[in-house]
Amino acid sequence: MGNPVVFFEIVSKDVPALRTFYAETFGWEFGVPMQGAGIPDYTMITTGDAGGIEGGIGTSPPGYEGHVTFYVLVPDVASALETVKRSGGTPMMGPEQVPNGPVIGLFADPRGNVVGVVQQP
Fold first, then answer.
1. In this structure, is residue 37 part of a structural domain?
2. Is residue 36 situated within a structural domain?
3. What are the phi and psi torsion angles at 3 (to 5°)?
4. Residue 1 falls within a domain, yes or no?
5. Containing structural domain, residue 118
6. pTM over 0.85, yes/no
7. pLDDT > 70: what percent of the chain?
8. Is the same domain home to 44 and 92?
9. Sequential DSSP letters for 56-117
10. What is the arithmetic mean of pLDDT over 28-57?
11. What is the mean pLDDT of residues 32-47?
12. What is the C-alpha to C-alpha distance for residues 41 and 16, in angstroms, rounded to an integer?
């Protein structure tokens, strides 16, 4: 069995403008900022379709422009990041426990694209 894409994330310097853009363009709704998310002003995104995946949006830290990435469900983030390394990718973050949530990690693929991995609690 494969590993499905289960979440997406948008991190940017201008989150208010992007919230407006995605709300007007696709009708997405945004929750209240989460405490302890590690990303300022981080909120969940509801895309409005039970068949689609949900996401998150937040402000990028100083010195970082941001990213748009997707998260792949894996049984174990640490193992997945080791496999990434063996396959030519570069682990960037994790495993990291999200408060009251899953374990996550980020890596760059061999072409520099940022991809996330997530292990459900």
1. yes
2. yes
3. -115, 110
4. no
5. 74-121
6. no
7. 98
8. no
9. EEEEPPTT--EEEEEEEE-S-HHHHHHHHHHTT-EEEEEEEEPTTS-EEEEEE-TTS-EEEE
10. 84
11. 82
12. 10
Considering the domain architecture, whether residues 82 and 61 belong to the same structural domain is answered as no
Which structure tokens are listed for 75? 């049984």
Q: In sequence order, what are the residues at sequence separation of 6 or more whose Cβ sits closer than 8 angstroms to the Cβ of residue 121?
A: 101, 102, 103
- Short-list 35, 45, 52, 36, CA closest to 12: 45
Residue type for position 115: V
| 80 and 54 part of one domain | no
Give the pLDDT score at 113: 86
SS3 at position 25: helix
78 and 43 within one domain: no
Cα gap 105→78, rounded to integer Å: 8
Say which DSSP state 121 is in. Answer: -
Mark whether 58 and 16 lie in a shared domain: yes
By residue count, the chain amounts to 121
Which two three-digit tokens encode residue 37?
């998310």
Q: What is the pLDDT of residues 68-113, one digit of tens each?
A: 999 999 999 999 999 999 999 999 999 999 888 899 999 999 888 8
